[in-house]
Amino acid sequence: METYVKIKSGKYRGNTIKNAIFPLIKDVTLGKKGMFLTVDATQVLGPKYPSARIIVNDITSFEKVSEHEYNAQDIVQKNTPAEKKETEEEALNRIKTRFDILTEMTRAVIKGTVRGLILSGPPGVGKSFGVETEMDKYDMFNKLKGKGPKTEFCKGSMTPIGLYQTLFNNSAKGDVIIFDDCDTVLFDEVCLNMLKAVLDSGKKRTVSWKSESHALRREGIPDRFDFEGSAIFITNVDFENVRSKKIKDHLEALMSRCHYIDLEMNKVTDKFLRIKQIVRDGMLDDYKFEGDGNQEVVDFMVEKSAMLREISLRMVLKIADLKKMKPEGWKALAETTCMKRMV
Predict the structure, then answer these.
(1) How many CA atoms lie within 13 A of 272 on its CB side?
(2) CA pair distance 64, 10, nearest whole angstrom
(3) How many CB atoms lie within 10 A of CB 26?
(4) Segment 63-101, tens digit of pLDDT
(5) How far apart are CA 315 and CA 204, in angstroms?
(6) In contact, 118 and 182? CB cutoff 8 Å
(7) Which domains does the chain have, with CATH numbers?
(8) What is the rounded distance in angstroms from the CA atom of residue 311 to the CA atom of residue 305?
(9) Is the per-residue pLDDT at 342 higher than 90?
């Protein structure tokens, strides 16, 4: 069930927002410019605003309202044809199609048909799962052929010299490097220049490191090499909406060399549809809940969506763990450990 919020008084990009109702994407957050809510503003501001941060003065500047009030409001935008409301089945098909394309593109990266793939989407919707599944199959196939693994998963922080070493160690034809939430490489100019080199459209992709380095000498790594592998970037960063002009130019250059998939799942309703889809496909089967136990977990999340710390597949598993641990009192545990404290 989607949550709606009425902004009594707020600001968006210098414009005043008064008494407008939006579907809530993310509850109150404190940022550099003050308190803000992230909302879906397509109905009020137009189709170009699926995710807008409305700045508010304090908690009295907004209130939660019903879907009926949202549908009944006078729309601010004019001369824009009303869009047909997407049905749940249509939304499920849209989401499934995106993930099917992701699987197809991942296989193309493994074959070397595609050199680089960028996958962007909100946290906790299973971005990594499909990629990991295909990589496991790839490594198993190589193992059966008597070869070692051809994939390398990189998570967390990485320095430029660390990236250079990783690229060298996985530079052979058929090697695939997966940068999973390793966003430091996307916001460092030295790293970005290396990535642009390895994903270049030319037949020969040469990477070089001209700075003095004892680490490279110690490892026997040359100061230049040819990269023949492929790379996948899994990130929460929306490449098309980065504010830093300096970094944005680099990311656009990276996008021009890669295929880019935006899962487009910022709406709360989309996240819940993805959760329902994965649970239906067996995500919670190992818990062996009796009766409608799986559905009870999902229904609980829908009911408490406005207060949950996050709406994600990780949260599904957290709550399922509590239900398994304490079948009779799991809801109380979930309300204490998985929800935001209401001020």
Answers:
(1) 21
(2) 15
(3) 16
(4) 998 877 777 776 544 333 444 577 888 888 888 888 999
(5) 45
(6) no
(7) 4-72 (no CATH), 88-262 (3.40.50.300), 268-337 (no CATH)
(8) 7
(9) no
Closest CA to 104 of 94, 92, 91, 113: 113
Give residue-wise pLDDT tens across range 84-93.
577 888 888 8
Instruction: Say if CB 297 and CB 30 are below 8 A apart.
Output: no
Nearest Cα residue to 41 out of 23, 63, 19, 14: 23
The pair of three-digit structure tokens given for residue 56, joined into one six-digit string = 């508010």
Backbone φ and ψ for 42, nearest 5 degrees, come out as -65, -35
Q: How many CA atoms lie within 13 A of 158 on its CB side?
A: 26
Kindly report the backbone phi and psi dihedral angles of residue 11, in degrees, each rounded to the nearest multiple of 5, phi listed first: -135, 140
What the block records as the tokens of 338 is 């998985």
Q: How far apart are CA 255 and CA 166, in angstroms?
A: 21
**Chain position carrying tokens 């990130």:** 235
Q: What is the 3-state secondary structure (H, E, C) of the chain?
A: CCCEEEECCEEECCEEECCEEEEEEEEEEEECCEEEEEECCHHHHCCCCCCEEEEECCHHHEEEECHHHHHHCCCCCCCCCCCCCCCHHHHHHHHHHHHHHHHHHHHHHHHCCCCEEEEECCCCCCHHHHHHHHHHHHHHHHHHCCCCCCEEEEECCCCHHHHHHHHHHCCCCCCEEEEECCHHHHCCHHHHHHHHHHCCCCCCCEEECCCCCHHHHHHCCCCEEECCCEEEEEECCCHHHCCCHHHHHHHHHHHHHCEEEECCCCCHHHHHHHHHHHHHCCCCHHHCCCCCHHHHHHHHHHHCCCCECCCCHHHHHHHHHHHHHCCCCHHHHHHHHCECCCC
Close Cβ partners of 273 (under 8 Å, ≥ 6 residues apart): 88, 91, 92, 95
Q: What is the dihedral of CA 168, 169, 172, 177, to 10 degrees?
A: -100
CA angle 150, 206, 237 (to 5 degrees): 65
* Alpha-carbon distances, residue 145 vs 23, 110, 176, 310 (angstroms): 52, 16, 17, 43
Q: Which two tokens stand for residue 76?
A: 């601010």
* Global pTM value: 0.68
Structure-token pair, residue 5: 């919020």
